[in-house]
Amino acid sequence: MMMCPVDLEAIRFPGQQSDERVFMFLRRHWISFLQPVFFVLVMAILPPVMIVFLGFLSIDIEIIKEFYGEFGAVDPDLRAKQFMIFIFSAYYFFVASYFLVQWLDYYFDITIVTNERIIDIHQEGLFNRVVSELYLLSVQDVAGKQHGFLQNWFHFGDVVIQTAGSGKNNFVIDHVADSYNVARRVVDLQEALIERKERRDDAVDVQ
């Protein structure tokens, strides 16, 4: 994910408390979107490559014409062209749909870090969305990690947050830009929250 240049003061989300401020708005690093883009490009150029390859093997639209001709179709040449247009249209519709789903997954996968909690919104396909949240007071340990050439070269990685209590899974913010800095900021926000809570408790004790 990457820290987006947005107006953090203008961000509002359901369940936001009156005194809750947004400090980070994160999306996955753009490099993580290259894999589906590469796959779509390969799928897009595959039909022309296959046409050229089949041409070398002397396999072309004439076979489809002969097929329609054997069944007594009127104007087999037109029917063959219509069939090819239908096949290509259906194929590229599938490729475009796949790209759209991948783009929505990328664009709507966001993490919001406030002075109270971490909210992770994970888009799954077109119509499913999973929202997880972790209160900063439940954070036990935070680590930024970068593995491999790409992550070190482009300075992105995962932020792994260990929660307090046994039997709980780690809370992971994956593919975030400058993961080390994000981890430090989460720790700073937690320490500031603990300090505010202690001051409130002390004020209550004095009263």
Structure characteristics:
three-stranded antiparallel sheet; 5 helices; PH-domain like; 207 residues; alpha+beta; single chain; elongated; five-stranded antiparallel sheet
Question: What does this entry look like structurally?
Answer:
Strand 7 (156-163) and strand 8 (171-177) form a beta hairpin. With 207 residues, the protein is α+β, with helices and mostly antiparallel strands. The protein is 49% helix and 25% strand. Helix 2 crosses helix 3. The radius of gyration is 27 Å and the shape is elongated. It has 5 helices and 8 strands, in the order E-E-H-H-H-E-E-E-E-H-E-E-H. The model has no long low-confidence stretch (mean pLDDT 83). It has 2 domains: 2-9 and 20-28 and 111-206, PH-domain like (Roll); 36-104. The strands form 2 sheets. The chain has a 5-stranded antiparallel sheet. It has a 3-stranded antiparallel sheet with strand order 6-7-8.
CATH class call of the largest domain: Mainly Beta
Continuous helix count: 5
Cα-to-Cα separation, first versus last residue: 45 Å
Biggest sheet record: 5 strands, antiparallel
- State the CATH architecture of the largest domain: Roll
Strand content: 15-25%
- Judged by helices, strands and strand pairing, the structural class is alpha+beta
Briefly say what this structure is.
This protein has 207 residues and is of the alpha+beta class.
